[in-house]
Amino acid sequence: MRPPSPSVSATPLHPPVRPVPVRGSVPAGRAPAARFFRAGLGFLLVFALTAVAFVWTAPGQWLDGGLLPRAERGGGYEQPTGLVDPAKDVLAWFGDPLVLGLLLGGVLLVSAFTGRIRAGLAGTAVFGVAVLGAGLAKQVIVRPDLAVATSTTHNSFPSGHVAAAMALLLAVLLVLPARARWWVALPGAVGVSIVAAATMVAGWHRFSDVVGAVLLAAALFCPVAAALARPRIRAGSGVVGPVDVALGLVGLLAALPRLFRDAGGLFVAIAGAGGLVLLVVVTVLVVVDPVEFGGSGATAPEADGYGPDRRSEPARMINRATSAGMP
User: Fold this and answer.
1) From CA 160, how far away is CA 166, in angstroms rounded?
2) Helices 32-55, 207-228: crossing angle, 10 deg rounding
3) Whether the Cβ atoms of residue 50 and residue 215 lie closer than 8 Å to each other
4) Could you give the angle at the alpha carbon of 30 between the alpha carbons of 220 and 179, nearest 5°?
5) CA-closest candidate to residue 109, choices 166, 164, 172
């Protein structure tokens, strides 16, 4: 008689080989979209608080009027300074449809060059929605008469020009490789600050209008970025949420009354607007740091939370078979 053949054990021949984690990669368990939704909610929350504080309260209206006093002629907010004409020139240039079309065309051109066509189209959509959203908000939000001498009932919250400038900068960030974002974002923040200052100097908008416009554009950017985001290799994993955004803005606004006593209101408004733009841009840069929006730098982590599996397909098949056990 032949001896019975030994049974085949279900135990794997050798321990399963797991993919080597990539240092700094974002685990799949923490989806990139979550950080964008947290930041977006933070921007939206502070936008709403800004509207309530500056539009619907007497102290807020007083602070707006104190920073940019009403001009004696016509009751507008045009400031008595030699910067009025340059400010109007900036606004006329940036408000030219041809200029805006060329700028958006540049975003699409960069997106084609960097392999981020979807991101470029999404960025132009953010721009359009930000402009339309600012216009709609001005129609919906009612500015009450709270008997503040330096205020009127005309609502200009938020600024369409500033929302357009901020959205344009964020659209550029969508189409750039991660390593180039800081180099473009900081000069871009200066450009947004110039447009913001011009709207206040020319008397088109109050300080709160600028604050609301910047926050509105950032809030609209976040869900679009969440839909496009893919983890990138060697990325950080810092988290910025509503608390970070709110604390930064509260600190900035808390300093305004003291600065107002020591310097002119226009200077404080311009400096405060520039500080806010920089704060929001840096916050966005931190949020987008671990992701790419297309191109060659994006990668999809494995389901177990490790980095990309660089082995060949046969090697991956062997790993899956041995991990599950052989029949």
Assistant:
1) 10
2) 160
3) yes
4) 65
5) 172
Strand partners of residue 113: none
Compute the radius of gyration of the chain from its Cα atoms.
26
**What was the pLDDT predicted at 139?**
93
Q: How far apart are CA 124 and CA 116, in angstroms?
A: 13
Residues 108/116, Cβ–Cβ less than 8 Å: no
Look up the pTM and report it. 0.76
Measured CA to CA, the distance from residue 227 to residue 294 in angstroms comes to 11
pLDDT in tens, 232-245: 755 444 444 445 54
Candidates 26, 5, 17; CA nearest to 178 is: 26
Q: In 204-244, which ranges are E strands?
A: 230-231
Which residue(s) pair with 230 in the sheet? 292
Closest C-alpha among 109, 252, 260, 282 to residue 189: 282
Question: Do β-strands 291-292 and 230-231 pair in parallel, antiparallel, or remain unpaired?
Answer: antiparallel
Q: Are 231 and 303 in contact (CB under 8 A)?
A: no
Which has the closest alpha carbon to 36: 301, 287, 294, 290?
A: 287
| Sign of the dihedral through C-alpha 203, 205, 211, 215 | negative
pLDDT at 208: 94
Q: What does the DSSP 8-state code read for residue 74? A: T
- Cβ within 8 Å of residue 105, ≥6 positions away: none
Kindly give, in sequence order, each residue whose CB lies less than 8 Å from that of residue 327, ignoring residues fewer than 6 positions away: 8, 10
Specify whether the CB–CB gap between 322 and 13 falls below 8 A. Answer: yes
Q: What is the pLDDT of residue 273?
A: 93
188 Cβ contact list (under 8 Å, min separation 6): 169, 172, 281
Burial class, 187, CB count within 10 angstroms (exposed 0-12 / middle 13-18 / buried 19+): exposed
Could you tell me the CA-to-CA distances from 322 to 111, 176, 315 in Å, in that order? 43, 41, 11
CA–CA separation, 135 and 129 (whole Å): 10
Give the Å distances, CA to CA, from 250 to 62, 193, 211, 282: 18, 19, 12, 16
